[in-house]
Amino acid sequence: MSTESGRRLRGARLRRGFYRRDARVVAPELLGKLLVRGPVAARIVEVEAYCGSEDPGSHAFRGPTKRNATMFGPPGHLYVYFTYGMHWCANAVCGEDGEGVAVLLRAAVPMRGLDVMRERRPAAKRDLDLLRGPARLCQAFGIDGVSDGADLVTADREVTIVDDGTPPLAAVVGTRIGLTKGADLPWRWCAADEPHVSRRP
DNA sequence: ACCGGGATGTTCT
DNA sequence: GAACATCCCGGTG
Question: Which H or E run contains A47?
């Protein structure tokens, strides 16, 4: 066990109002915050904004469905979806109730519970690959459909995001990854000079 | 480092 | 039937 994993986690959970804003405002502010679930914690270093019915790249573009229902709910909840037949990805719902706005959590730096992450991600050859990518991050955190709709503000299902006082990380902007529609919009933010991102802009 | 192909199944047309 | 907010592995340079 490293000194990092033994240290008590200090920090305040982000409140509802933090999320209740435009995803393009919330996204860069999430860089440097800690994603926490049980024994596992990591510093968020890459995010993407998905902006509801105005955004052709968003699941919300064609309106509410059973799958994206959480996205159209109140902000501050976790929207978890299944894709490519085997992967889960997690978003923080943002904006006002019913807007269908969210921020995809794409990469993070492992901070605590690395032993658990390694067990959950046997394919990762290096610790650098533990959380580098949205589906890898979910795998390492044990996040799947059961966590869809979890309230990040109350941590009703253990998942939450906290501010430990780390100063805002310098951000580099780029285009979103893996899209065929809305691929040109510059709605991806990475912490500058950070090796734990999925791809540099 | 970069590229190509396969895995795998839900969701929506 | 096609698309999919991805990942892994094995090839080549």
Answer: strand A40-51
Query: What is A145-160 written as a DSSP string?
Result: GGGTT-BTTTTTTSEE
Does residue A200 lie in a domain region? no
DSSP bridge pairs for A196: none
CB-strand contact A86/B, under 7 Å: yes
- For residue A74, the enclosing domain spans 3-191
Measured CA to CA, the distance from residue A2 to residue A108 in angstroms comes to 18
Is strand B within 7 Å of residue A126 (CB)? no
pLDDT tens across A21-41, in order? Answer: 999 999 999 999 999 999 999
pLDDT band at A174 (very low <50, low <70, confident <90, very high): very high
